[in-house]
Structure formats: structure tokens, C-alpha cells
Design brief:
By secondary structure, this protein is α/β, with parallel strands linked by helices. It is 28% helix and 22% strand. The protein has eleven helices and 18 strands. The protein has helices at 2-17, 35-38, 44-56, 59-62, 94-104, 130-140, 157-171, 218-224, 252-264, 280-286, 289-295; strands at 30-33, 66-69, 108-114, 144-148, 176-179, 197-199, 211-212, 215-216, 237-239, 269-271, 304-309, 312-318, 324-329, 336-340, 352-356, 361-365, 370-374, 379-386. The strands form four sheets. Strands 9-6-5-4-3-2-1-10 form an eight-stranded parallel β-sheet. Helix 9 (252-264) packs parallel to helix 10 (280-286) and helix 9 packs parallel to helix 11. It binds alpha-D-galactopyranose. Alpha-D-galactopyranose (GLA) binds at residues 35, 70-71, 112, 119-121, 148, 180, 182, 203.
Amino acid sequence: MKRITILLILCLPVSAAAQKFKGLAPTPPMGWNSWNTFGAGISEKLIKEMAEALISSGMQQAGYTYIVLDDGWEAGDRDKQGNIICDQRKFPGGMKALGDYLHEKGFKFGIHNCAGTKTCAGYPGGRGNEFQDARAYASWGVDYLKYDWCSHGSANAEETYKTMRDALYAAGRPIVFSLCEWGNNKPWLWAKDIGHLWRTTGDITDCYDCQDVYAMGWKFILASQVGLEKYAGPDHWNDPDMLEVGNPGLSFIESRAHFSLWCILAAPLMAGNDVRKMSDEVKTILTNNEVIAIDQDPLGKQGYQFMTHPGKEIWARELSDGDWAVCFFNNSDNPVKIRVKWTHLSFLKGTYKIRDLWQKKDIGTTRDDFIGDVDSHDVVLFRLTPAK
Ligand code: GLA
């Protein structure tokens, strides 16, 4: 009996201390991640060039704060003491110096690794080294950890991610914890107290409507988000994967629609394009402050699909101060005319002023029906504000 009591006392403080760092993601994190364009082909030079481009393009100003090095920064093996280390050829200055550089430029430093034994690109994963790795990340000044799920063997997802959460907490540096478990074990049901965001799907690709498990288009991912809205909120977001805005497989319209709908979904906005070569057109999408404000709305309520119909879907998101975002999406391959009697949108109460967020124009009130043409794969995105 005495031994049991002592054991209980010894165990208690650890589990009582086990928690994620709170309050790090009151709104969905925004930034840039290397994976969608560069895969594992990253380097110190590339990251610094991207940081400069994020500043000169106005992206940093628009809120893209985290620069996340995805897979491929690691050396092929740990050092003799088992420490995770970077590839010195790609990152000659080392991770701490890169972190300092990013902080000096006003960014936050993000990094990727994996809950399994190896990352998906074959570099050392964290399994069994969580506490040692967390201390390394903290010492480099890391602010955001994306933690993948390759080579996990028979590991239990919830337990494995909890271990890394505890390791981060023990290391003492507040680090946003981004679970990248692809939605396999429904993290929305168990990850709220573990991470600040969790992937809900497999990998996105720059395609409007691809349905391969390893390469999904955004239309397919969007459909799979229906019903998940109730699990998201400040500090615990659904992550339908990073942005493909501006990447070659999407037209301008498809990029704009993807961005609009990700904002309705309260998705983390991680740009995945080559910002150094971004066209002005693409820049107008990624830096549209009024659309970003939908994503970053402080109420923190994810939007939902109100209605779906061949040729039109209606998505809605409740915003702070009684406002609503409403998005009409033409999911068909032909242009459609959309007619909306606002009273049919049962979530609206009373009359609202309407602002078109892509045209950046006030277009009247909900007293009048809306009639408009919407191109194939395009959206119309409105912000509705109660008319006084
Ligand atoms: C997985 C993740 C991707 C990316 C790659 C890197 O596929 O889902 O987002 O991080 O690993 O290898």
C-alpha cells in the first residue's frame, strides 16, 4: 500500500504538468512553408531569399509570420550523442543562426520533423528522442513544430503526439505544435489539448479536382471538411493542409476560390508558392486584407457548408460583431448565374450591408436579391454587416 502511494505521488506532478502551451494560436497561424514548391530541396540560402521576398512583397505585413522549414533540413543521421542535426551543406550557419536571422527580420521560426522513426523523405524522425529533440528545437529558437506521421509502425497516434507535447512543454519554450497525422485517427476528436492545429487530410497538390490519396485537389479536400467545423476554435484548429495559391496547377480563379474557402474554413494560411517569383495577380489574392480578416476573425468560429447543389455551394462563417462571411462557389465546369434571396439563408437575422471582398466594393443590402454570374470553379465572397 505504502509503495503504491509513493508511486502515485511520484507520477502525479508529471501528468499534472503535462499540457500544451496555451494561447499561442488565438487565430489560425499564418506563414510560408517550403514543402509544396521545393520538397526536400531546401537550404539556408533559399529560406533567406524567401524571407526577403515575403518582406518586399508585403506578405509579412499581411500577416504571414511563420517561416516553416519542411522535410529535408536534417542530416542523414543523428550525431554520436543522438542529437538531431541539420545538413551542414544545406545550412552551413546552423539552425540557431537561421532562427536568429528570422527573428531579426520579424518572422517566427518553424520546423518539420516526424513522430515516426523516419520522416517521409527518409531523414531521422523523432520517435524515442522526443525530449532530446524538443530541447534542441528550443535552443535553436524554434517557434512552430510541424510533426508528421511517416514510419510510425504500430505506434498509437494520441499517445505519440502527447509524448512530443510533453517534451515541448518540458523544454520550456512556447512552440506551436502542428500535428500532421493526415486525419487517419480523427485527431479532431482527441488533439484539442495536445496541439494547436491538426491536419484533417492527406497531402494537398496544386490541382483543382484530383482525388489521389497522396495528391488531393482542394475541391476534394473541401468536401471532406464538412462537419468538422464544430471541433475547431481558438488555439485548436482543423488544418485542411497548406495553400497551393499561385502554384502552376491552379488557374488564377481556382487559386482565388481555394483561398476564399480556406478562409471560410478558418484554415491555417501557410503559403506554399515561390514568393520570389509571385505574379502581381497572385499577390492580390494572398494579401487581400479583407479576405484574410475572415480567416483571422477573433470569434474563431470555423465556417460551414450551408447548402450544396450541382453548380453552387453556399458556405457561411459567423464573424465577430454579428457579421457573416458568405461564399458562393461554382463547383461545376460551366459558368452559372446565381440568384439569392437572402431571407432563404436562415442564419441571417434582419438586414445586412453587403461588401464584395474580391471587388472591394459595397454592393447594397440584403433587402435586394443578389443576381450574379459566377465563372466555373470561381467564388463570390461577401462580408455581411448588420445594417443599423
Ligand atoms: C507528409 C506531409 C507533408 C510534408 C511531407 C514531407 O507527406 O503530409 O505535408 O510535410 O510529409 O515529407
